[in-house]
Fold this sequence. Notes:
Elements: H1 5-13, H2 17-33, H3 36-55, H4 59-76
Amino acid sequence: MGLSAKELEESLLALPLEERARLVDRLIGSLEAAPSATWYESWDQEIASRIEARGKGDLQVNEGKAVVDKLWKSLEE
């Protein structure tokens, strides 16, 4: 069985700053390598699902935003 989202987040945040930056570069690179139409379609679907989830009061949407905020903050340090 794989890691939960929380466990994955904790393990990623435990990485040294350089490793986190390298991981972010690879993830962004993988998005850039994807065909634009596919990437934009996926993005639009993700946004639509988050809007729907937020409308239903799904707290995981807010937790996901917190994860992204933490990642950006850690990269700025």
